[in-house]
Amino acid sequence: MGVTAMVNQKGGVGKTTVALGLASALCAAGRSVLVVDLDPQANATTGLGLWDPPLTVDSLLAQDRSGSASDAVLTARWDADGIAAVPAVLASSPRLAQVEHQLVSDVIGAQDRLDGVLGDLPDDYDEVIIDCPPSLGLLTVNALFAADRVVVVTEPAAWSADGVEQILRNVERIAQRRGGRPELAGIVLNRVGRTRDAGYWASEMTQRYPEHVVEPHVKLRAAVAEAAAQAVPVHALRRSGAGEAAAELDALAEVLFGPGDPGVSLGTAESPEQGAEGPEQMDRRHPEDRTGHGSESVVDLGGSPRVDASPQVPTDSGSPSDWDDPGSDARGASTVDPEDVLAIPVPQRFG
Ligand SMILES: Nc1ncnc2c1ncn2[C@@H]1O[C@H](COP(=O)(O)OP(=O)(O)O)[C@@H](O)[C@H]1O
Ligand SMILES: [Mg+2]
């Protein structure tokens, strides 16, 4: 139980995606979760199905009323089919960016406003997850002042370790002022593809922080991107790769948050459709996908309000089977994973 901040000053590494994936895993196990969206881009808010939330965290921070957050809690509009519960949400809006500027002029209460407005609210939930913006500015500092734990989300790429180092220094400085809180719960490697480049940087990160890089890593999968983009919990998504992604997130949630109540361990919660099956046994794929991988584009966002323009998430080339089966070596000329183009042999680049 506690408040966990998902941080990295870099955007696009998967803070929001992993936060929502972990929330999905916890909810699937029947745990109560509050997601606090502290990013003015409000990706977690929309990923939780809230497009025009009536109450948002920016007004709470602006008013600075102790304990006021309990009046602003919304319920995620996640289709609960496939998971036992849905998260509660403190939603964000672009106005949060202005509030961050205003905070700068508050010489006394700039750093711990979030902690103040949350008050005792975290006690009502098994886990509170704060999705931070891509900066180490005052919003992230507020998250760190409200958090018991920090999860650093990063990707296996050049310079990532330098960014992590900077975050850890900030966390350390705040922990010194707060009697040891927040603690580092772990460094999560996300978007781990099966290129040599990804493998190289993943092992670099693990060697640099052997005690903090947690496993499993979150693999680069179309299903993970699609779940967040379509405001569906990974555990309720029916497409190839969704079952594997859900099982991965269950295992990661157990490492980061512990096993929970005896008898309701992560990934074994019952739901109307799932019965008592665990994720390993379940086939969550759409029936049409069950005879093999579908031939749809990797991330078909068709009409979704969230369009993913990330260069590492190709929508018009590559094949879902390449993405969703990181162990497979079977590739044809028409199914070349575009990431492989980036896999410059390690000795040339780093030797
Ligand atoms: N494991 C993953 N597999 C595939 N796509 C991912 C994965 N994690 C993140 N993404 C995609 O990468 C992009 C950036 O992720 P996001 O969670 O928004 O990052 P951040 O919150 O750190 O800015 C999004 O489009 C998301 O769908
Ligand atoms: Mg984000």
Write up this protein.
The chain is an alpha/beta fold and 351 residues long. The chain has one domain: Rossmann fold (3-Layer(aba) Sandwich), CATH 3.40.50.300. It is built from 13 helices and eight strands. Strands 3-4-2-5-1-6-7-8 form an eight-stranded mixed sheet, sandwiched between helices. The chain is globular. The C terminus is likely disordered. The structure holds adenosine-5'-diphosphate (ADP) and magnesium ion (MG). Magnesium ion binds next to α1.
Indicate the low-confidence ranges by residue numbers.
Answer: 268-322, 324-351
Report the major sheet.
Answer: 8 strands, mixed
Instruction: Kindly report how far apart the N and C termini lie.
Output: 45 Å
**Full CATH superfamily name:** P-loop containing nucleotide triphosphate hydrolases
CATH top level class name: Alpha Beta
Which fold name is given in CATH as the topology? Answer: Rossmann fold
User: What ligand species are in this complex?
Assistant: adenosine-5'-diphosphate, magnesium ion
Which structural class do you get from the secondary structure elements? alpha/beta
Key structural traits:
8 strands, binds adenosine-5'-diphosphate, single chain, 11% strand, alpha/beta, 351 residues, Rossmann fold, 8-stranded mixed beta sheet, 34% helix
Secondary structure layout:
Blueprint: E1 2-7, H1 15-28, E2 33-37, H2 43-47, H3 57-63, E3 74-75, E4 88-90, H4 95-104, H5 113-118, E5 127-131, H6 138-146, E6 149-154, H7 160-177, E7 183-192, H8 196-208, E8 218-219, H9 222-229, H10 242-257, H11 320-324, H12 338-341, H13 346-350
Parallel strand pairs: 1-5, 1-6, 2-4, 2-5, 6-7, 7-8
Antiparallel strand pairs: 3-4
Helix pairs in contact: 1-10, 3-4
The structure holds adenosine-5'-diphosphate (ADP) and magnesium ion.
Magnesium ion is lined by residues 15-16, 39, 43, 131.
